[in-house]
Amino acid sequence: MIIDKEAGIGGKVGGVAVVTGGAQGIGRSICERLITDGHTVVLMDIDGDRARETALELGNGTLGLQCDVANFDQMSQLAAEIEERAGICSRLVANVGWTPDKKFLDTSIEEQDRVIAVNYTGSLNATRLYLPKMQEQGFGRIVYISSDAARVGVAGEAVYAGAKAALIGFAKSLSVEVARVGVTVNVVCPGSTDTELLRNMFNAEQIEKRLKIHPMRRFAKPSDLANAVAFFLNDDADFITGQVLSVNGGMLRAG
Ligand SMILES: NC(=O)c1ccc[n+]([C@@H]2O[C@H](COP(=O)([O-])OP(=O)(O)OC[C@H]3O[C@@H](n4cnc5c(N)ncnc54)[C@H](O)[C@@H]3O)[C@@H](O)[C@H]2O)c1
217-236, pLDDT tens digit by residue? Predict the structure, then answer.
């Protein structure tokens, strides 16, 4: 596929979308949806093999690249490569997230630093690299994937919830800074979503318990999240910025 680097900076169809953590789970589903919507997708993931495999499976000129979002130098090199190979990024989905399931005082300083670096600093790193060109072009769409844990708090996820809440504060503030230059910034908060992350965190009994109290008796599918992200990225959401949307089947009704 030949990619026209000048085409599709703004508008519903076309344009380069960068998705962090796109090799699996919610990120992969977001990539699938963005391809359907006509975008050229670049996914990056710390698991390089899986990133390349996913990109091949998704086809349509999708690039799959290895990168740790917490490593600014790696991210910076990759941003230059992406611009060279695919074109200017007009849409950024900062999707990466990770946490061990541990009470705060059982979390080591190293784990604490890593959770903050991956969930918070990593998303700021991506923003620092792709926002300048969006500003220059007068068009950009940024969506951060936070968590309902940030809005209501969850035992065993205190550092993660704090980092994801910081992301919300950052997004709201940034949305005001860039509103006049054509860039919107919004946040999507998944509730429990059926992905590897969830299956690694909870055993079968815990999953059963959670499902029993869920209003819809099911977890989110990754595509439920992808639908919300796609809405914020397309032209129907031009006048929506600085907002936080939970996608959780009514499990939590955060104000
Ligand atoms: N699944 C849920 O129930 C749930 C709930 C609330 C919030 N979330 C959030 O949704 C987002 C996606 O979660 P998911 O369930 O799809 O997770 P997942 O673990 O299935 O997928 C995350 C992807 O990110 C990649 N990744 C992890 N650390 C990275 C790093 N440092 N640099 C680059 N890539 C990295 C992983 O390799 C993986 O491919 C995360 O931000 C997560 O915190 C998920």
Answer: 999 999 999 999 999 999 89
Bridge partners, 247 (sequence order): 190
Told to judge if 130 belongs to the known catalytic residues of this protein, a careful annotator would answer no
Please tell me the distance between residue 96's alpha carbon and the centre of ligand 1 in angstroms. Answer: 5
Question: Quick one: pLDDT at residue 202?
Answer: 87
**Cβ neighbours of 59 (radius 10 Å):** 9
Tell me, using a 6 A CB cutoff, whether residue 18 lines ligand 1: no
Which atom of ligand 1 lies closest to the CA of 164? 43
How confident is the model over 161-170, as pLDDT tens digits?
A: 999 999 999 9
On the question of pLDDT at 134 being above 70, the answer is yes
Beta-carbon contacts of 203 under 8 Å, excluding residues fewer than 6 positions away, are none
- What is the per-residue DSSP string for 1-60? ----TTTTSSSSS--EEEEETTTSHHHHHHHHHHHHTT-EEEEEES-HHHHHHHHHHH-T
Model confidence at 1: pLDDT above 60 = no
Is the CB–ligand 1 distance for residue 175 below 6 Å?
no
In the set 120, 130, 144, 160, the catalytic residue is 160
Q: Is the CB–ligand 1 distance for residue 45 below 6 Å?
A: yes
Question: What count of residues does the chain have?
Answer: 255
- The CA R_g of the chain, rounded to the nearest whole Å, is 17
- Per-residue pLDDT, 150: 97
